[in-house]
Write a structure and sequence with these properties.
single chain, alpha/beta, disordered N terminus
């Protein structure tokens, strides 16, 4: 996995939010998630009942970022799209990978959060 940030881009964290059908919000993050950017990360995770958190363009995930993910997971339905080695390693080292729903891509995460209609009921 490659970091898509170039040498000319400042360190930090940016995010975009996309609304998907069924009330699913996809949050795509770019940069580093650490103590300096934890407030921005918490802001991104603050709203929505069902969130997909796309970490594929995150170069670094600190314990502060893992803590933010776990807090969001406690209050909402969360699906995390794993990022590169550094992100995956942080999730594994902290044990968060056992507590969070981790997916290889946004499509799989969306499928996990999309409600399945009950038989005999319309979607």
């Amino acid at each position: 996995m490659h970091c898509f940030r170039t040498i000319d881009e400042p360190s930090g964290l940016t995010y975009t939010t996309t609304e998907r059908p069924g009330g699913i919000r996809v949050i795509t993050l770019v940069g580093d998630i650490d103590a300096a950017t934890a407030e921005t990360f918490d802001e991104a995770l603050a709203s929505g009942e069902r969130l997909v958190v796309d970490l594929t363009r995150v170069a670094f995930l600190s314990c502060a970022g893992v803590r933010s993910l776990l807090a969001a997971n406690a209050r909402t339905k969360l699906a995390v799209v794993r990022g590169g080695h550094a992100v995956t390693r942080s999730l594994q080292a902290t044990g968060a990978d056992a507590l969070l729903e981790i997916h290889p891509g946004v499509g799989a995460a969306l499928a996990d959060l999309t409600p399945v209609p009950e038989p005999g009921r319309e979607a």
